[in-house]
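Need a sequence for this fold. Nothing fancy.
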């Protein structure tokens, strides 16, 4: 079985090749180009492709993949909002994903963003490197005895809730499908979470219901001086409304690992180019905003789990076994 691995980085190839001996009968070809309408033709002669969260797998690409005989789409990530599932289903393509690779990796990064944005650690480091040991501009707030609001209580959200509890915070949560048996946090309505939380952390998938869950109306319901963190999907936040809220001094700090316009340049070195949109620069211009490049998953443990599950998915498809991680439209 031949699989074309799009958007390959050195670390991808390293972790996948390490596990190849366990899964005989499969041949992976790694290419740096990401998948889009212009590169879909490269899949000709392959049985399946492997793509990541930043891939374009819309209708036009799925149509082309069908023309080239692709039967399997392996998503080496949990999210699949970038895949046209209806068109894939129409052509009998199977879409498999990695539902959980390391919830703790993402949750720990979310808390790292909270601490960095709150205590201005990144700025303090730069100041000290320049022999500037003044504390001006570095004031933070205690997290202890504050209220953390977790939106989305899947595995990552629960991991974040436990971390917040470890900091001595009260934890409240909102989820469309609450697990009432959990005893370390309290489920509340979205409105109550927004108004009561000192820290709001987003951990829900991007769906029709959750797109722009953080927008002008919901921002208005938040406490003044709230800390907002997003390590889930950029589309959960309406960026223009977030920028307006920052300008109105609604937020004490904002930590973003994902953002709406990241698709074209995430994981790429853009340091010598001019970005086509100014949104990222606008966010970075604010002194209370901390941003990272969608790296919440980026730990050795998570990359090992991603490679393992992706190869298991391919192996199950190749051998006609149960597809436990199939994404259904």
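Here you go.
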């Amino acid at each position: 079985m031949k699989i074309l691995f799009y958007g390959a980085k050195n670390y991808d190839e390293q972790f996948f090749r390490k596990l190849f001996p366990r899964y005989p009968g499969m041949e992976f070809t790694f290419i740096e180009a990401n998948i889009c309408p212009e590169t879909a033709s490269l899949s000709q002669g392959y049985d399946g492709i492997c793509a990541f969260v930043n891939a374009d797998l819309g209708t036009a690409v799925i149509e082309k993949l069908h023309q080239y005989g692709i039967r399997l789409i392996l998503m080496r990530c949990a999210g699949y909002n970038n895949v046209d599932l209806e068109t894939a289903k129409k052509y009998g393509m199977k879409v498999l994903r990695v539902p959980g690779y390391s919830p703790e990796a993402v949750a720990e990064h979310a808390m790292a963003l909270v601490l960095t944005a709150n205590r201005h650690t990144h700025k303090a480091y730069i100041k000290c490197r320049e022999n500037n040991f003044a504390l001006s501009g570095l004031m933070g707030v205690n997290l202890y005895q504050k209220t953390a609001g977790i939106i989305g209580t899947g595995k990552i959200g629960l991991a974040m809730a436990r971390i917040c509890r470890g900091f001595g915070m009260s934890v409240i949560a909102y989820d469309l499908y609450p697990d009432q048996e959990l005893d370390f946090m309290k489920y509340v309505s979205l409105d109550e979470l927004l108004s009561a939380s000192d820290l709001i952390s987003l951990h829900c998938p991007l769906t029709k219901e959750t797109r722009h869950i953080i927008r002008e109306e919901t921002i208005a319901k938040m406490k003044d001086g709230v800390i907002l963190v997003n390590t889930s999907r950029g589309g959960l936040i309406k960026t223009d409304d977030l920028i307006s809220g920052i300008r109105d001094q609604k937020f004490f700090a904002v930590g973003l690992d994902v953002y709406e316009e990241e698709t074209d340049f995430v994981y790429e070195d853009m340091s010598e180019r001019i970005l086509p949109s100014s949104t990222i620069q606008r966010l970075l211009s604010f002194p209370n905003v901390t941003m990272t490049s969608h790296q919440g998953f980026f730990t050795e443990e998570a990359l090992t789990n991603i490679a393992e599950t992706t190869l298991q998915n391919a192996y199950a498809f190749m051998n006609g076994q149960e597809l436990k991680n199939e994404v259904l439209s």
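For context: The mean pLDDT is 94.
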